[in-house]
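Recall that a protein's primary structure is simply its ordered list of amino acids. Everything else, from secondary elements to tertiary packing, is in principle encoded there. The following example makes that idea concrete.
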Amino acid sequence: MKKLTIVLLVLSCSLAAQVRPMLKLTDIHAAGQSCINALAYSPDGRLLATTGDDGTVQVHDISDLSNPKTIRFIKAHDSPVQDLDFSPDGTKIASGSKDKTVKIWESSPNGKLLATYTSTRGINAVEFSPDGKHVAAGGINNTLEIYDLASGNMVKSVSLPMTINEICYSKNGQRVAAGSSLGDIAIWNTGSWSQALTLKLTSNITGLEFTPDGARLLATTEAGDIKMLDAFTGKELFTLTVDDRTYVYSAALSIDGKTIAAGTLSGKVHTWNADDGEYKTAYVAGQPCFVRAVAFNPDGNTMAAGCFDNGIAVWGVADRSKPSATIEECVRSKMEAWLVKGEFEKTVDYNTRTSPGNKDKKEKECNAECSRDFASAYFASLSWNFTLGKYDADSEVFPITSDVGSFNLHVPIAEAQKLKESWSSYGRDDVADIKYNTATVSDKYVVIIDSFYFKNPATGVKYLCDK
């Protein structure tokens, strides 16, 4: 029996244009998924579900990246599982297999099988509708099938000229797109099921996703093309290529729609700015690693890649070295995600969740969270190189200067000489209890440090630094 090794990585947060090394934190050992065909994060970002050729669905708790745990192992299908998806409320998982079935499972550790839908041929792609009422499936019979979860019936079917490999809904649920093994892409309006657009690319569609506003469509092909298309006209906005046009077998958009990720045969995940196609960086999943699946965590902080050799790599991808977004942008993004997915309070319906009281409470929480995140990012980006000045015995302070300003370090006379002699041993790890204010200046988030403490690494004594 083989073992599934999940390699969890946390890398430097700056998205500089460089290839990053792998930092292995831990392993998870489970009955072997011989390769990772698909993976999906739960809406709250705490779980990562994976599928493989062995017919299983596995659910891993990644809330603590230093200690991930496999909490669910489902012998889901009799043939390879090609795709899976979490429902918008996180309570269900849909899996689609070559055994011609789509199955709906409770996502809880002891959850049961809720439904099985049988098609005429193998299934390659599944996706829940944004309202959670339907699941779309497509595969070898060239047909996009829409199943109603309440009744268990197939309520609609539409066709493409060839095998369907990819499916995606727009975030508002008003359109759904499908891509085929011959490069066909079709978009339907889900209200009338009229075909809104058809496109033809040069090869097998391996990735398909609408931007959050539904205005653009990301499409990748096995031939190595990554295209951003106008989702209403089909106009090609830009095309990207990687590794001398190596095969691209997976793609994803970050939750805010600002970053494109594409997994390749070369074992790398490349990333670009989704607005203009500017290259960001490449993440190395390892060799050999044919990257079959890529997904961004809804929290925006991590990205996962699943490989043909059954490895799963998780990287930190949030750009925290130079905060440039405003707090308002950060809060708005978090609020939009909460309103859509109900992450704040899953036990109540949408109307209750979006009541003024709940929205106000959530907005305050988002403000506090964004402020902490941006401040932490700022502190992490500092060199904290302090220069110690001449001691003033009358006021009992050392003046110090640094990349964050000038401060007074309060040290009693009796301890002044000893601190001066040991000054070279102080570093950023000895900075504690930072007090700061925040502001937005010229659309840039600014952190202003008011005071902090230096902690003597030998004695634990804290010395106040203020202005």
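The CA atoms of residues 42 and 90 lie 6 Å apart. The chain is about 10% helix and 45% strand.
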